[in-house]
Amino acid sequence: MTSPTTTTTRPAPAPAWAAAAPAHDTGLLLLRLAVGLTVAAHGAQKLFGWFGGSGLDGTGMFFESLGYPSGRTMALVAGLSETLGGLGLALGVLTPLAGAAVVGTMLNVIVSAHWDAGFFAPAGIELPLLLGLGAASLALTGPGRHAVDRHLPLPRLREHRLATGAAAVALGLAVAGIVLLFRN
User: Fold this and answer.
1) Total-model pTM
2) Could you list the residue range(s) of the whole structural domain that residue 58 is in?
3) By its UniProt entry, which Pfam families does this protein fall under (predicted)?
4) Which residue among 34, 111, 143, 168 is buried most deeply as judged by most CB within 10 Å?
């Protein structure tokens, strides 16, 4: 005579890649790529005239029409902030500072070029607000595990802290406010 056996069904083990990459890390990577590469492309328009941009000379003239002194220099600063900040976000390199560069630049974009057009695209604050808030979110939360920051010898970046991100966002907003004071 045989004794009754109980069969228990065990869930299948998760694949190795799923254990190594929690959903929030993958989500942060996707957000970093979307925000970072979009902002970097806008910076490349200003710096190099790529993607239908005006380059430094054309962007400089536009900046002067917005009331910025030394338009070409301000175009260079904005282009570098967007390109380097965007690439920093996309790669997860010095993420709080990259986020701060983008936040500060987007605040200037909103106030100087888009505010009077209302909220919605094509001329409203919708896109720069979304990019700025995305950058601020990444600065505050950190880049996730799929980032260069995790391999740098800086503990504050490897183990992201809210205070680091908040200080970086505050720095970006302060610098943006100072730059806005220079406008005519």
Assistant:
1) 0.86
2) 25-147+157-182
3) DoxX
4) 143
